[in-house]
Write a structure and sequence with these properties.
Elements (H helix, E strand, L loop, with lengths): L3 E8 L2 E6 L13 E3 L5 E3 L7 E6 L6 H14 L6 E7 L3 H11 L5 E4 L5 H6 L2 E2 L4 E2 L2 E5 L5 E6 L9 H15 L1
Length: about 180
């Protein structure tokens, strides 16, 4: 059973309904099942033991989503092997694969929630009105505890990139 909740999130100034529970810092990160570009199943458990930056975007084919994915891809190359960057959208896996090839994305993994909307429902990012994900960023530590959350209030705006990267860096320092 999924819950619908009104939110303070808007899409081009219009309020949207999000499906799923709001995730908070300190919560155990819910598992999910999404598809990689080759249609293989991917879950949160697949990256267990690593710090995860989960970047949730409405569609890779938009300017802000493109910039967000590129920014986190670039940052990931400097964070080391203990960090996994996952970009999740409701785009089809084929469209994600095409976009990655054109954009030269190598560090971030693009994952599709199109089939089940499993991530969107588990993390409260599923926009009922459009069957898209809202813009959000989550940092999950190696023990599956959520350490950073940002639901971007206006979907057409950028997240706070540096705050998410700093949250990851603080976890890496603690780990060493």
């Amino acid at each position: 059973m999924s819950i619908e909740r009104s939110s303070l999130v808007t899409f081009a100034g219009n309020p949207v309904t999000l499906i799923g529970s709001e995730i908070r810092v300190g919560d155990k990160a819910p598992n999910f099942e999404v598809l990689a570009n080759d249609l293989s199943k991917v879950t949160l458990e697949d990256s267990k033991g690593k710090v995860r930056l989960i970047s949730c975007v409405p569609s890779l084919d938009t300017g802000v989503c493109d910039a967000q994915t590129r920014k986190f891809n670039q940052s990931a190359s400097n964070l080391g092997n203990d960090v996994e960057v996952l970009t999740i959208s409701a785009d089809l896996p084929f469209a994600q694969k095409r976009w990655c090839g054109a954009a030269g994305i190598e560090q971030a993994k693009t994952l599709s929630d199109h089939f089940k909307m499993s991530f969107g429902t588990a993390y409260g990012t599923y926009i009922k009105e459009h069957r898209l994900e809202c813009r959000a960023v989550f940092v999950v530590d190696e023990k599956d505890v959520v350490q950073y959350v940002e639901y971007v209030p206006e979907i057409t705006e950028h997240p706070h990139y540096e705050a998410a990267i700093e949250a990851i860096k603080s976890l890496i320092k603690v780990k060493k």
